[in-house]
Design goal:
mainly alpha; 2 domains
Length: about 500
């Protein structure tokens, strides 16, 4: 078994190195590593600060931290949706060899379990433990405490994989984590004495004391979650490889696009791609759920009433529709790029059609922001300025990726597909898409005030919208200069 796992690991590395996005991905990874070091420093700072700040009359700081472990795990769960994808491995070639499908799934789960993301929280807990635990339990208490925290994060990893995998099949499964964390929240805040908090205090104290029963219980929970994931992933891989899926197709032909000629044809193609393919439908549903959830929280709660978070959620709601799909622009078309290139300037019409579709899609987040505007959480001018700025400036940046993206994104395959070697660069660009406009907004707001800043964003957005035919033409021209290289890479990265 160890030999099989080692071979699969080598194959995964070779596949990544031979991937057409490898060179771009290396740059993105280096930047992500730098960002990881930056956040590791922040966690060390917070761990040291908490060690001195968490002080009570009858409780040691580590008791308070242990009681808050459930909140750390909930935050870790949410962060995984932003930074961690479900593990993948191209399965088809191995089915021709004497390798059991479950061995490949075990490899995926092991690779996910030893991911560096599961150990990032050590930068918070190690300095905290050194300051607060060592004086009572020595170095051994520090070691057992940090090992226990690692086990909790590994459990959280498999819990996230279970939820993410189920939600990829049916968005209704989002009710599972909502019910779990909603129930835990009610159990923590409603009673005067919370059994959940007491449980995690006992769990953390057991880690510090090296209680073998506590460790065995956590390991048993990890094993249970492992087998649940294994069973579900095995069923889904079987369904993908054998095409056992829902084959019902929406019969609508969107005939109202006929009046717009060739651009109308590509607008129809884009809508059919979004609404008929498994991968696209899942992304679309997730975007809707996230946008609706954040809009409701912003409108009817005080969770995001802070200036920084309110600005972030506003930008996020408007940009997420474009980012989720335009970050992989031309990736889905890689499945049929040869047909697109057989007609003169068809790619230019396709890019125009994409821009029109996603520009009109901005009406959805704008409508979702109406309650926030009614509740005076967000100014009407601010909302409209961000909507126009998004389809102007932000879409301009994302459309530049059409020149450089050269990885075919499978339309219906998830778990049994190839590794996504382009995530480093694309995560970097996705982060910049949110971060740079937000930073610009904050700086201009401090200097000029909110109203003037909103007008500046509105004017910038209108400028890029009006000139969109020019810069889309420029994107098309640059793509055509490297079309043969891109087409070769699209073909080589297709699923066969």
């Amino acid at each position: 078994m160890a030999h099989i796992f080692n071979e699969l690991r080598k194959h995964g590395k070779l596949a990544a190195k031979r991937h057409p996005m490898y060179d771009k991905n290396k740059f993105g990874k280096y930047v992500m590593y730098a960002a990881s070091i930056f956040w590791a420093g922040y966690l060390i700072f917070f761990g040291t600060t908490f060690a001195f700040a968490l002080d009570a009359d009858n409780l040691e700081p580590y008791h308070l931290m242990n009681g808050a472990l459930i909140f750390v795990m909930a935050l870790d769960f949410l962060l995984r949706f932003l930074f961690q994808k479900t593990p993948t491995q191209e399965v088809k070639p191995y089915l021709l060899m004497p390798v059991k499908r479950n061995r490949i799934i075990d490899f995926l789960l092991i690779r996910s379990g030893v991911s560096g993301f599961n150990f990032i929280w050590l930068f918070l807990f190690v300095p905290f433990a050194i300051i607060t635990v060592t004086r009572y339990f020595g170095v051994w208490g520090d070691i057992t405490y940090c090992v226990g925290i690692c086990l909790l994060m590994i459990f959280n990893n498999y819990w996230y994989l279970l939820c993410r995998t189920l939600m990829s099949e049916c968005i209704a499964w989002i009710l599972l984590p909502l019910a779990v964390y909603g129930g835990l929240g009610a159990a923590i805040f409603i009673p005067k004495k919370s059994l959940v908090t007491d449980f995690f205090v006992t769990l953390g104290d057991g880690f510090i004391e090296g209680n073998i029963l506590i460790f065995l219980a956590v390991i048993a929970a990890i094993v249970v979650m492992w087998y649940i994931n294994r069973s579900i992933m095995s069923r889904l891989i079987y369904a993908e490889l054998n095409k056992v899926e829902d084959t019902k197709v929406n019969a609508s032909e969107y005939k109202f696009f006929d009046r717009y000629g060739e651009i109308g044809e590509y607008m129809r193609l884009e809508l059919k791609m979004l609404l008929r393919n498994k991968t696209c439908k899942h992304s679309l549903r997730m975007v809707m759920v996230i946008a609706i959830g954040f809009s409701l929280l912003l409108s009817f709660t005080e969770v995001y009433d802070g200036t920084a978070m309110k600005s972030f959620i506003t930008v996020y709601n408007f940009a997420i529709f474009g980012v989720m799909f335009l970050i992989n622009i031309m990736g889905y078309e890689g499945n049929y790029i040869d047909g697109l290139m057989s007609r003169k300037e068809s790619l230019y019409s396709l890019l125009r059609a994409k821009y029109i579709i996603y520009s009109f899609a901005i009406i959805i987040p704008l409508a979702l922001m109406i309650p926030a505007m009614v509740m005076e959480k967000v100014e009407i001018l601010t909302a409209f300025s961000w909507a126009i700025f998004t389809i102007g400036v932000i879409y301009f940046g994302l459309f530049q990726l059409a020149v450089y993206n050269n990885k075919t994104i499978p339309l219906n395959i998830k778990i049994s597909g190839r590794q996504n070697a382009g995530t480093g660069l694309q995560n970097l660009i996705s982060g910049a898409t949110f971060g740079v406009p937000l930073l610009l907004y904050v700086l201009l707001k401090l200097w000029l005030g909110e109203t003037t800043t909103s007008w500046i964003l509105l004017v910038l957005g209108i400028g890029f919208v009006v000139t969109s035919p020019l810069w889309i033409k420029n994107v098309y021209t640059r793509f055509m200069k490297r079309r043969y290289k891109n087409m070769e890479d699209f073909r080589s990265s297709r699923e066969h």
